Give the backbone structure.
Amino acid sequence: MYKLHDFLIQPPLSEGWTKSLLFVFFFVHILFVLLMLGTAIMASFYYFRSWRPHGRVGTGTEMLAPFTAHKSLAVVFGVGPLLLIQAGLSAPFFMATSLLAPWWMLIIALLVISFVFFDAPGKRFHADHPFIGLAVMAVAIVTLLVVPAIFTLTLSVAENPSWWEGMAQKGFLSSGSEWHWLLRYLHVLGAAIVFAAAFHYFLGVKYLGRKGADAMVGWMAGGTLLQFISGPLLALTVSGKLGFHPVLFMVIGISAAAILLWTIFKRSGKSLCPMATIPLMIVLLVSMLSVRQFLQDSGFSPVLREAKKNRALYAAAIEPFRKEALDQYKARLATVYDNGGTIFKNSCAFCHGGNASGNGPEASNLSIRPEDISSIRTNRAYLYKILADGIPDTSMPYFSFFDKDKVDDLIIYLDRNYRVLGPIEPLKAAVSQDAMKKAEEFYKETCSNCHGMDGRGGKIPLKPGPPDFTQYNLVPTKVFEVVSKGYPGTAMPSFGGLPEDIRWGLVKLVNDFY
Ligand code: HEC
Ligand code: HEC
């Protein structure tokens, strides 16, 4: 169903823990977001209203005093939910942030501009450059207001998997979700005004004065009324998802809001009592966040369920490969600690073959076939050199990572099984004097160019170069085979056209260098 997501990583916390912690962190985060946002809205309002080219700095900038604390706490506590969502609910979250990537990234720039500009105007500009002050304040509030719009948009997208494919193809406007988003955004702004007004009412007496305090109550009432309008409309846009729990918490929230409004209108000149108002507002916030959380869960859970199912499926699919890799790894470990036989089995046999005849499972993939080790006759020092350096320009690797004991053990193994350090067996066929002479001539004319008159290698540089026949040789039948067929992939040509007795003569010559 949801083709656009997959994940394989095991979440660090159980779903229950993730959701509970998310709720707590989100509560604290959103509280400071609301205070910051509401303060900024009201401060800007007063600033613009009282702005005169040469007037005094208005009420607005005074209200901004706690703004720095609020914005810092909002950001700091925002990290918690972000981390939890990434860790426990990554599939829908990453889907939404990828679909909205440019907007999501824009948040950083917007916040930086807005935060810097809010700190700037009143103190720095207003007295000397009132118009710059005005512009700075306008940019500050506009940039700040865009941020919650992006956040609500991202969450809406994360919670609605059915939009994803359409959005990926045709962009956000294809989802038909603009109303949900807009109302959700308004609902956040309304809440921000109510909570920030209450904050300044109870804690900002110093700069507000009697008139200002009354104005704050006005903002609270206005904001709550706005919620009474935007809330039900918002609920309509998610009516399909409203189960028992969301409705229950919605009823609690609406009741709390109604009582709040009632206390505001009934106070008749007296101050609002913090002991009644503040608990009411907490109930209001908790219940509304609960509604949000339940709706979010109902959006996320099919995605998470599917992701879990995929995780199990993929884990099962890669299990055999995992086992194979593990076995291979174990074998490799054993190689390090084990004897020549194991080293050969694990490090040589896949090229040289289990019986060392040069036909391991990888041999046919190599342009130069591995040597038939059982036909090699050489000495310990030369074999050491081969194993330490490999054969340059071929796939024969070097094994300098084995310590001396292991290489010794390997050489013992090769000698015991294939007599690589033994003498060369005498030639079976007898070669006539005449054939021998012809062979010597042929060697001088042809072979010596590459192999040298002394068998140690000629002057022509070749890749790979020929071996030093005085240190490294092959059993007669093998030399005969190489001379007759060549060594495919190397410069060694085939001399199958030569009469057989001359070829045997060449074999004797080659062997005699040793
Ligand atoms: C990746 C494949 C590969 C592996 C692994 C490998 N070899 Fe080789 N080996 C070759 C090839 C190819 C040649 C032939 C090189 C040539 O003819 O120039 C070769 C040649 C040799 C030769 C002959 C040297 C010569 O001058 O032709 C010896 C001895 C040898 N290997 C031993 C070993 C031993 C022992 C191991 C394991 C520790 C080993 N090889 C692992 C591919 C491999
Ligand atoms: C054009 C250069 C060239 C000529 C000519 C040539 N060889 Fe070689 N020969 C090589 C090279 C290079 C190798 C190494 C192949 C390899 O890496 O295994 C080789 C390998 C061999 C080997 C086997 C060694 C091994 O490592 O398997 C024998 C035996 C041999 N040559 C004999 C002869 C004889 C005999 C002649 C003349 C009839 C001859 N070669 C002519 C280049 C040449």
Remarks:
- Residues 371, 446-447, 449-451, 462, 464-467, 474, 479, 482-483, 487, 490-493, 495, 506, 510 surround heme C (ligand 2) (CB under 6 Å).
- Confidence is low (pLDDT under 50) at residues 1-7.
- The CA atoms of residues 136 and 144 lie 12 Å apart.
- The two ends are 73 Å apart (CA to CA).
